[in-house]
């Protein structure tokens, strides 16, 4: 695929740069939190980080499209579309919890081909491109392959999600109850950190009952290259389903059965 490596390199660099911008505001007393129309929080850190991502992408690949959470879509003509989330886990960010991340995904002709998850406060990153494998970096240590776990039953693994009340609000509380009752361990280490845990073999499943495209665009290529699966709740491998199930692959069918009831 033309220019895939160049775009992946930019995605890695820009995610790290944008993440460092968020750290300027993390755990500071003067952080101002605004509310969007849907009552979700947003800060100047979200906006500055996304502006940086957009600027870097437009400079190097001006014909690519860009979709982000905080600003209008930029249409492109190249067949590539960048999908970015400057702070995935803003509620964690404004609470001073380090489990938030910067996400950069790239689609080509509607299919996710590049993904980067960077956790600025942890200095931890996973990234992947189609056919190039998935990679894990933690601090200054050399990168190593990112691989999902070999767990074959959810009863032997960790299940992650975000807020439990999201299941209730989306009329899916029964699905959560079944997942929580089945899993060996259940934790709300959610947002992109849950997917990073799956990609690096620490969690068996991360499940979102509600998700925007910028929440999961980076996730699909990472999990697939790490040996796992990402689908919607119907089992379709798409980032446009408004929900997400990321697993190590070994528990995926079991998880689908549990969420369907």
Task: Describe this structure as you would to a colleague.
With 261 residues, the protein is α+β, with helices and mostly antiparallel strands. The chain has a 7-stranded mixed β-sheet with strand order 3-4-5-6-7-8-9, sandwiched between helices. The N and C termini lie far apart (40 Å). The chain folds into 2 domains: 4-145, Fructose-1,6-Bisphosphatase, Chain A, domain 1 (2-Layer Sandwich), CATH 3.30.540; 154-260, D-Maltodextrin-Binding Protein, domain 2. The model has no long low-confidence stretch (mean pLDDT 95). The chain has helices at residues 4-23, 44-60, 90-94, 164-169, 173-182, 191-199, 213-216, 219-225, 252-260; strands at 33-35, 41-43, 65-68, 80-88, 101-108, 111-119, 124-129, 134-138, 144-145, 158-160, 185-187, 205-208, 229-231, 244-247.
Task: Please render the helix and strand layout as text.
Blueprint: H1 4-23, E1 33-35, E2 41-43, H2 44-60, E3 65-68, E4 80-88, H3 90-94, E5 101-108, E6 111-119, E7 124-129, E8 134-138, E9 144-145, E10 158-160, H4 164-169, H5 173-182, E11 185-187, H6 191-199, E12 205-208, H7 213-216, H8 219-225, E13 229-231, E14 244-247, H9 252-260
Parallel strand pairs: 3-4, 10-11, 10-12
Antiparallel strand pairs: 1-2, 4-5, 5-6, 6-7, 7-8, 8-9, 12-14, 13-14
Give a quick summary of the entry:
The chain is α+β, with helices and mostly antiparallel strands. It has two domains: 142 residues, 2-Layer Sandwich (Fructose-1,6-Bisphosphatase, Chain A, domain 1), CATH 3.30.540.10; 107 residues, D-Maltodextrin-Binding Protein, domain 2 (3-Layer(aba) Sandwich). Helix content is 33%, strand content 25%.
């Amino acid at each position: 695929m033309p220019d895939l490596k160049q775009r992946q390199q930019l995605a890695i660099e820009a995610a790290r740069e944008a993440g460092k911008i968020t750290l300027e505001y993390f755990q500071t007393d003067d952080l101002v939190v605004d509310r969007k129309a849907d009552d979700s929080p947003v800060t100047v850190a979200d906006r500055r980080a996304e502006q940086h991502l957009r600027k870097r992408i437009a400079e190097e690949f001006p014909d690519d499209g860009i979709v982000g959470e905080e600003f209008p879509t930029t249409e492109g003509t190249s067949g590539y579309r960048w999908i970015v989330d400057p702070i995935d886990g803003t509620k964690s960010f404004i609470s001073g919890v380090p489990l938030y991340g910067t996400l950069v995904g790239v689609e080509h002709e509607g299919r996710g081909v590049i993904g980067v998850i960077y956790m600025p406060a942890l200095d931890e990153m996973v990234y992947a491109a189609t056919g190039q494998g998935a990679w894990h970096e933690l601090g200054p240590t050399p990168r190593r392959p990112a691989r999902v776990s070999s767990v074959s039953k959810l009863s032997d693994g960790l299940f992650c999600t975000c807020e439990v009340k999201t299941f209730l609000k989306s009329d899916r509380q029964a699905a959560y109850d079944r997942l929580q009752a089945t899993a060996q361990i259940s934790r709300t280490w959610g947002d992109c950190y849950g997917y990073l845990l799956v990609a690096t073999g620490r969690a068996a499943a991360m499940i979102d009952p509600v998700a925007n495209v910028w929440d999961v665009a980076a996730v699909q290529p990472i999990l697939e290259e790490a040996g796992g699966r990402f689908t919607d709740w119907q089992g379709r491998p798409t980032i446009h389903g408004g929900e997400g199930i990321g697993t190590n692959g070994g528990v995926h069918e079991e998880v689908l059965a549990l969420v369907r009831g």
